[in-house]
Amino acid sequence: MSASKICIIGLGYIGLPTAAMFATHGHKIVGVDINGGVVDALNQGKITITEPYLDIMVQAAVTSGNLVGKVTPESADVFIIAVPTPITEDKKADMSYVIAATEAIVPYLKKDNIVILESTSPVGTVKDIICPILEKTGLVLGEELFVAHSPERVLPGRILIELVDNNRIVGGINEKSAQLVKELYKTFVRGKIFTTDATTAEMCKLMENTYRDVNIALANELAIISEKLGINAWKVIELCNKHPRVNIHQPGPGVGGHCLAVDPWFIVEKFPETASLIEKSRKINDNMPEHVLGRIGEILGDVSGKKVITILGVTYKPDIDDIRESPIEHLVGLLEADGNYEIRIVDPFVHNHKYIKKDLINACEGSDLVLLAVNHKDFGNIQFNKVSKVMRTKNILDTRNFFDKKVILESGFRYFLLGSN
Ligand code: SAJ
After folding, report:
1. What is the pLDDT of residues 115-134, one digit of tens each?
2. pLDDT at 48
3. Residues 249-264: tens digit of each pLDDT
4. Could you give the C-alpha distances from 390 to 221, 304, 378, 394, in angstroms and in order?
5. How far, in whole angstroms, is CA 169 from its chain's centroid?
6. Cα separation of 329 and 311, whole Å?
7. Atom 4 of ligand 1: nearest residue by CA position
8. 156 with 322: CB under 8 angstroms?
9. Quick one: which of 132, 297, 393, 395 could link to 369 by a disulfide (CB 3.0–4.6 Å)?
10. Beta strands in 23-129 (DSSP E)
């Protein structure tokens, strides 16, 4: 496709990398965000999120003149909506950002433009929310204005690699819309691009994350059953997965992030009667911090007075700085509510948390329990014999099957593992 002018609304975890990717592949990009700070930073070639190599790519894109930040949209050939679709307290999709972004571009739309929704959205969003707003332009949708949903599939921490390499789905309101959007993404996507209708594409995106969430719930249920049985769930999983058609996921202290912990609710919201397995799985995963709290209570049952806990990792998954929907934050809330715990957190990726301590030994001074919550690679280098010396009561609870049990026992700790007794 020849170079286009693309207006990308929302400069977050998806919008900004997508903007940089198109800009470094020859397109002219206007990145729009309502947050003036994000726009100012962008125009100086800087980024406000952490993602490997994104800083270098954004700087190159801005320096080339192909990427500029603005706080309001302007006319372009293509408009990409990449704003958040958060979940409300009562587990309903908050579509206000998508609606506001769509309304904001209406005055700038003209014949032959393309509008793409990237944000993960409930099924029916393009048909029932986006299209009715776009009809206000007076343009005939599918003939004069082309519309599609092209959900992102990238894994935080690997965004720039996966944007290029992953297969992609494009769901158009008609065949022509899907084909035009496919051609556009071919500029940088090396994976295959499959076209379908918009509603199918919306469901695909939700089901990909729901598949993972339901499977993790299964692993978590196995972990709790294994604890009751006195066997090791991790061993069960290892052996089961030697079967050619079995792939049990990993248990853990809960499921976080803005995808797995959110998207399944979009299906439940629309089909509360039918989506019972999906809802139950969400609840199993959401309950894991409570389960971990129960294990902590058992392990520290004999410690009198305020019990001191050193939590290793607070992000929602390893080796990133993202704490959105982190189950460890939920656990911290439960420990606070209990009132019997002094909390200390060590996390090489997080610097401004109220319980954060920079130094591990300092964080373990007088502690009763080291809780491995997130398996950041850095935690593989811990010298347990040194940690052991400063602990008040020497306990380790590993929720990720990350530490070497033998080393821990040799350092004088009692060793506990989630999914085992
Ligand atoms: N987790 C487990 N057990 C597992 C795997 C993960 O407890 O076996 C937990 C992690 O600790 C974490 C959470 O699940 O708390 C989610 O982590 P993740 O790495 O599975 O996924 P996300 O949320 O970072 O990214 C997902 C990806 N979706 C799939 O793999 C199907 C990504 O491709 C999507 O683009 C992204 O959601 C999104 O934006 O929707």
Report:
1. 999 999 999 999 999 999 99
2. 86
3. 999 999 999 999 999 9
4. 35, 18, 20, 9
5. 19
6. 11
7. 250
8. yes
9. 395
10. 28-32, 67-70, 78-81, 113-117
Catalytic (active-site) positions: 205, 259
- Give the SS3 label for residue 344: strand
Residues 6+ apart with CB under 8 A from 77: 4, 5, 6, 112, 113, 114
How far apart (Å, rounded) are the C-alpha atoms in residues 167 and 41? Answer: 31
Q: Is 212 in the pocket of ligand 1 (CB under 6 A)?
A: yes
pLDDT band at 75 (very low <50, low <70, confident <90, very high): very high
pLDDT tens by residue, 261-310: 999 999 999 999 999 999 999 999 999 999 999 999 999 999 999 999 99
CA of 259 to the centre of ligand 1 (A): 7
Token code pair at residue 277: 């397995």
- Token reading at 91: 């587990």
What are 416's strand-pairing partners?
A: 397
